[in-house]
Amino acid sequence: MSTATHPSDVSAAVSWQDVLTSLEDAVMVVDLSHAVSFVNQAAETLTGLSARKLLARASDDLFGANRWLLDMIDNSLGPNESTSRAENEFVKPRGKNVPVSALVSPLRDPDGRLAGSVLLLRDRTLRQAMEEDLRRSDRLALLGKLAAGLAHEIKNPLGGIKGAAQLIRAEVAHDASLLENTDIMIREVDRVNQLLDQLLDLARPAGLQVEPLNVHELLEHVLGLEVHAATAAKVRVQRFFDPSLPMIIGDRSRLIQVFLNLVENALQAKPTRVAVTTRIETDFFLRTGQSSATKFVSVDFRDDGSGIDEDDLPDIFSPFFTRKRRGTGLGLAICDRTIKEHGGRLGVESQLGEGSVFRVSLPAQPD
Fold first, then answer.
1. What is the spatial distance between Cα 196 and Cα 206, in angstroms, rounded to a whole number?
2. How far apart are CA 278 and CA 120, in angstroms?
C-alpha cells in the first residue's frame, strides 16, 4: 500500500537551498553591505565563476560593468525598497556576454526586516535564437508562397528560350563567336531554372523520410566526396569524432546535402584547416511532459579561413543574402530550414580574418 507524503515531510527533507540550487535560472543574494551571500549553480554557470570566487565579493566589484544591474540592486535596498525588472546584456567577468532578463527584489528576514536583495537572472540566449528562428521561418514561408506562384509563369518562358537557343546553336555551329553566345544563353537559362528549383525547395513541405542514422557514417560519406577538392586546395581536414554518440533520427539524403553544403562553404573560405567535431550537446535539451530530456548530437564544421563580418551574421541564413560573387544566397537558408524540419538548430560563430564554426544540433534517438 502506498502512502502519501505530507508537506511537512517534504519540507524537512528538502531545504530552500536545495530548491534554489535546482533552478535553471541564476539566483544570487546580496546582503545589506552589498556583498554576495548566496549563489546557486546556475549563477556560477552564468557568471563563469565558482561559488568560492563569488561569495563575499562586493556587488560593485562583481557587477561593475553592469551599471544597470547595480542600479536595480540600489533601488531594492534604497528607501523605497522597490522591485524592478529589466532585459539587458549581462557583461560577464569572463567569457562571452549574454542577454538576460533580470528581476531584483528586496529580501526580508522572518521578522520582516530588510536583509538584502535577491537577484533572479534568466539567460535569454536560446530564447532570442528561437525568436529569430521564428521570424526567419515567417520570411521563408512568405518567400516560398511567392516562389510557388511565380515558378510556373517563369519556367514556361525559360523553356521556350532554351529551346530556341538550342535550335540557333545547331544553325550556327560553323561560327565560333555565335556558338559561344548561344552556349551562354543556355547556361544562364539553366542557372535561373536551378534558382527557381531552390526557391521551390523553400515552399514545398518537408516530406522527410526519417530513420535511425549514424552521424559519423554520413560525415565520412560527405568528406569522401570532398577529398579531391580539399587536396587540390591544400586544406587539411581533421576529424574529432566522439565514438560513444547515440544514433540520430533524420532523413539521410537531406542531411547529407546539409553537411555537403557546410563542408563546401568551409573549403571556399580559403582555410588551411577544416575540423569536423561531434559530441553530445550540453548547451540545451528539450523536455516534454513527463518524458526524459531529449539529448542533442552536435556537429561542428570549423575552418580557419576568411571568416564572416560581425554585421553579416544576423542575416547569414536569410534567403538571397550572400557575399559570394556567384552565390544565390539560398544554400544556407535551405540548410537552416532542413535542420529545423528535423527538430534541430543551425548556428554560426565567426570572426573576420580568423575563421568560422557552423554548428548543427540534431535530436538523438531516444534511449
1. 17
2. 34
Mapped onto helix, strand or coil, the DSSP state of residue 265 is helix
**Of 170 and 220, more confident:** 220
Provide the β-strand partners of residue 327: none
Contacts of 214 (CB under 8 A, 6+ apart): 247
> How far is it, in rounded angstroms, from Cα 124 to Cα 98?
7
Q: Which of 1-15, 277-291, 326-340 has the highest mean pLDDT?
A: 326-340
63, 109 Cβ separation under 8 angstroms: no
Kindly provide the residue ranges of all beta strands, DSSP E only, lying in 41-186, ordered along the sequence. Answer: 84-90, 98-108, 114-123
Q: How far apart are CA 273 and CA 59, in angstroms?
A: 44
The enclosing H or E element of 282 equals none
Q: What is the pLDDT of residues 294-306, one digit of tens each?
A: 788 999 999 999 9
Cβ contact 154:147 at 8 Å:
no
Q: 212: which strand partners? A: 249
What are the φ and ψ backbone dihedral angles of 286, each rounded to 5 degrees?
Answer: -115, 140
Q: What is the DSSP string of 235-256?
A: -EEEEE--TTPPPEEEEHHHHH
Global model pTM greater than 0.85: no
Contacts of 325 (CB under 8 A, 6+ apart): none
Residue keyed to cell 525588472? 85
First to last CA, the chain: 31
How far is the CA of 78 from the CAs of 59, 60, 72, 83, 292, in angstroms? 15, 15, 10, 11, 44
Residue whose entry in the numeric block shows the C-alpha cell 519556367: 155
Q: For residues 268-299, b (16+ Cβ closer than 10 Å) or e, as one string?
A: ebebeebbbbbeebeeeeeeeeeeeeebbbbb
Reported in sequence order, the residue ranges of the chain that DSSP labels E, i.e. its strands, are: 26-31, 36-39, 84-90, 98-108, 114-123, 210-213, 236-240, 248-251, 273-280, 296-303, 345-351, 355-363
β-strand partners of 84: 104
Beta bridge partners of 297: 280, 362
